[in-house]
Design goal:
Blueprint: H1 2-8, H2 32-68, H3 80-87, H4 100-119, H5 123-136, H6 147-151
Length: 163
């Protein structure tokens, strides 16, 4: 038994011998105040990221719930100033447009822009123009499946009369 313990007992002090190039010549000393400052700053940045992540996750959950119930397709997604800007109208006008000449101008611009987007097969712009027109002029102009053909929008962009 003694012999077994003798195998595990070192006979000499074990020293780590390092070459001179790797021996630390100076111990890095960081003042405790600086360490506290670095740790506190890191914790603040981490906390800011966690708060931002939680807010974004909550917003995405609410958005997903809204689209699941069908509320995501409302015209509230576009502001009135954005709708007027998209149609190239004066930003001082009230939405929905009240004067007949403003409504006709918005319809003419919409027909032209929508025809261009349709010719280029750009569904994104078609949706933007449709939302702007819905908000400014007619809230249910595209409730029908064949709304574009009913409105007489042709490829020249001139647009036809509503029929």
């Amino acid at each position: 038994m003694r012999r077994a313990f003798a195998l595990f007992r070192p006979t000499a002090v074990v020293r780590c011998v390092q070459p001179a190039a790797f021996r630390p010549t100076r111990v890095l000393h960081i003042p405790p105040q600086l360490v506290r400052l670095i740790v506190a700053g890191g914790l603040l940045v981490f906390q800011a990221f966690v708060v931002a992540h939680n807010r974004e996750a909550q917003r995405l959950r609410e958005e997903a719930d809204g689209t699941a119930t069908g509320e995501g397709c409302s015209t509230a997604l576009m502001s009135s100033s954005e709708a007027l800007h998209i149609l190239g109208m004066d930003a001082n006008l009230r939405v929905p447009l009240e004067e007949k000449k403003d409504r006709e101008e918005a319809r003419r611009r919409f027909d032209h822009l929508f025809a261009i987007a349709k010719n280029n097969n750009n569904a994104y712009l078609q949706g933007k123009f449709s939302a702007a027109y819905r908000l400014c002029v007619d809230a249910n102009w595209d409730a029908d499946e064949n709304s574009c053909s009913n409105r007489g929008i042709d490829s020249s962009g001139s647009g036809g009369e509503q029929g």
